[in-house]
Amino acid sequence: MQTHHGPHNPVTPGVDLRSDTVTRPTAAMREAMMASPLGDDVLGDDPTVQRLQEAFAALVGKEAALFVPSGTMANQIAIRSQTEPGDEIICHEDSHIIHYEAGGPAAISGCMVRGLRGPRGTFTDSDLLAAIRPDNPHFAVARLAIIENTHNRGGGSVWDLASLNRVTDAARAKGLRCHLDGARLWNAHVATATPMRDLAAPFDTVCCCFSKGLGAPVGSIVAGDARTIHRAHRFRKLLGGAMRQAGLLAGAALYAMDHHVQRLAIDHKHARTFAQIATGGGSALRLHPDQALHGPETNIVYLDLPEAMPIDAAELAARLARDGVFVLATGLRRIRAVMHLDVTESQARHAASLIAQHARP
Ligand SMILES: *Cc1c(COP(=O)(O)O)cnc(C)c1O
């Protein structure tokens, strides 16, 4: 993200659409946190963290799970646990792990990353097979395929289950392991009414985030087979991500899994309404090409400023911020607006009309 225009005071009134990470825990979530039994999770005896890890592992049909501070750490631990230095990771070129994780695969795992192209953050089994180098001492060993679902820079897009199965089958046939960056897997689950375990089934490891659409203050989780999660424990410690009375946070995550998943459908509806209003009524803005055909698939809306528009995305974001609407400029001529727990329908409508107003030629 290039600019972070936002309220200086977090309680400034306004509509904050910069990310679905800006939500604050609800009163009921805070109560659940305060009521959570606690222990020392580094010594292995925080009952709430254990309950969360077991519940999540069961939800996604894996043997074990590990609670971690962030989605970035979840991805990086999954990569470190399944690769050796010099290995190659294959993923979409617009992946979060390439754009927003500070070079983690290189810094933490010593891996090369091969980026594939394709619409909406997706790629095909033949794209993948073409990228896997033959077994030859000249070449890096392709070790891990990573899929992001929903795909953030692909427009909050949802992978079709059949193509996801084809890609992971192809990867496995070539001896690669498969990791699912499911920071927003909850959104894919709700948008397609596909069980979480089916979305996760083709993968060796899966991570999900609790502090995005689900509204928890902190926390992500990575799940997989018992041996891989055993390794993941060591790398979480190595990266400084082992936390003591973490049940306080796991309590929020458990509450979010019970109460905030199905309501994501509301955010998806708001995104469609928002996109219609922001691109209508004489607005010069257009939906991101990946969203142009079907509109926003989940809770993320990307709007492109046409070349003819005299201001760039950063300037548009700055002007909107002065009127109390906060979005991110994610490119020179692209802004992003994300719907979440703390955005009502009338706020979404208001923000979209304001954007359309600012974008009239
Ligand atoms: C947000 C996000 C992450 C992790 O982000 P953190 O801010 O580190 O929690 C990982 N993958 C995707 C696709 C994301 O959108």
Descriptive key words:
16% strand, disordered N terminus, 4-stranded antiparallel beta sheet, 7-stranded mixed beta sheet, binds pyridoxal-5'-phosphate, alpha/beta, single chain, 15 helices, 361 residues
Task: Report on the architecture of this protein.
The structure is a single chain. By secondary structure, the protein is of the alpha/beta class. The chain contains 15 helices and 13 strands. The strands form 3 sheets. Strands 2-8-7-6-5-3-4 form a 7-stranded mixed beta sheet, sandwiched between helices. Strands 9-10-13-12 form a 4-stranded antiparallel beta sheet. The chain is globular and about 55 Å long. 53% of the residues are buried. Mean pLDDT is 95; it is low at 1-11. Pyridoxal-5'-phosphate binds at residues 70-72, 75, 96, 148, 152, 181, 183, 209, 220.
Largest sheet: 7 strands, mixed
Structure summary, number of beta strands: 13
Number of helices: 15
As a whole number of angstroms, the C-alpha radius of gyration is 20 Å
Distance, first to last CA: 26 Å
Order of strands in the sheet with the most strands? 2-8-7-6-5-3-4
Oligomer: single chain
- Based on secondary structure, the structural category is alpha/beta
Written as H for each helix and E for each strand, in order along the chain, the element string is: EHHEHEHHEHEHEHHEEHHHEHEHEEEH
**Shape type:** globular
Please tell me the overall pLDDT.
Answer: 95
Strand residue percentage:
15-25%
Q: Regions with pLDDT < 50 over 5+ consecutive residues?
A: 1-11
Distinct compounds present: pyridoxal-5'-phosphate
- What's the helical proportion of residues? 40-55%
